[in-house]
Amino acid sequence: MIKIGILTCSDKGSNGERVDTSGVAIKEIVKEIGGEVIKYEIVPDDKKNISEKLTKWSDKLKLDLIFTTGGTGLSKRDITPEATEEVIDRKVPGFSEIMRLEGFKNTKHSILSRGVSGLRKKTLIINLPGSEKAVRENLKIILPSIPHAIEIIRGKTEHK
Amino acid sequence: MIKIGILTCSDKGSNGERVDTSGVAIKEIVKEIGGEVIKYEIVPDDKKNISEKLTKWSDKLKLDLIFTTGGTGLSKRDITPEATEEVIDRKVPGFSEIMRLEGFKNTKHSILSRGVSGLRKKTLIINLPGSEKAVRENLKIILPSIPHAIEIIRGKTEHK
Amino acid sequence: MIKIGILTCSDKGSNGERVDTSGVAIKEIVKEIGGEVIKYEIVPDDKKNISEKLTKWSDKLKLDLIFTTGGTGLSKRDITPEATEEVIDRKVPGFSEIMRLEGFKNTKHSILSRGVSGLRKKTLIINLPGSEKAVRENLKIILPSIPHAIEIIRGKTEHK
Q: Do residue C94 and residue B112 have CB atoms under 8 angstroms apart?
């Protein structure tokens, strides 16, 4: 079982102006890899707020994996990658690179996502874009790499 | 209309030893996306000099987009990426990644480009390589993503 | 002739628990580009230790190119990328990006490698993964770009 947190970063989502279909999509899709969503919250695009949630979910709740959705674009308020970089110990750039570059085959906009990925101790944190469509496409790309990643982080296997 | 600056970073270009065909190529190509070149200068490969130009063009002239060309390679004096990183607030790595990796299909040398991309407030800054051929190839790859990027930065639309 | 160093980063390799077939593979493969291995050592996954070796091999031995192997994964002790980032002056991200993304076509695990690449003065440092299979696959991808890179670093040619 993979313990998962979903943090939706969206001003409009947090004040009720928009329904968070992306968070819901993640919740459903992670079942495919035995993911169980322990935490799911919507926060505004506030750097400190996002960093604090990621820190707490990693250090206190000891989740295996946190997906953020939203706040990775070029709008003034988009700050999820910076909030994430502030709390990770070690970067894992491959997840973000492959989402942008594989995604580019379908949509030219995929390279505008500024998402980062990394480890905070034993918690893997991955920024997903905000739109449900992009979330679905991106998870399809990276999901097959996740279970092996979690095994290695837990120390139960070595990298093949 | 997209307000564009072109900053050619080249010791030889700035002292007249080399004709800057790359800058001229950018000027011509950006017309395809409604780009109007407001500023075009050639500076030597000097970090402080490059950073100051980028800062001034962003903060005072409020350009939408600055393309640098040159100074992204492995030579001793190549320093454009470091000068750019010093002035951007938020990284937009996808532009640089896609230029290196799509470019790799044509030429193995494309991965030697150390270019970065990012935002300084509302100005998007993208490092292009120095050679005219590489500039043309790279712009072909990223140009279709630019107009939507500028719209989002201006706040006139949301990321799709 | 390209002067090469191989630094195997592995707790098990350094205490004799594992035979370093990856280091041996690099030694053999670099002959294809006129590489001569001047230094080859196995060190534990210790950040300070790795950084010191890289610094000494660059500054004192003035090697053209150092390949590290191992320590790029998600295990608790994997620290080679962080040790490398500490000693490089200028990043050369393309080598690491292309290894992850071209590698992804063969194996989904390639994106878990956290390897970085960069220059310390005139020495190019490239992190390779730990497994022999991955080392062979990755070198196949980047080797054709190496000789031109070394020429530029030495200042004997300009970037084409």
A: yes
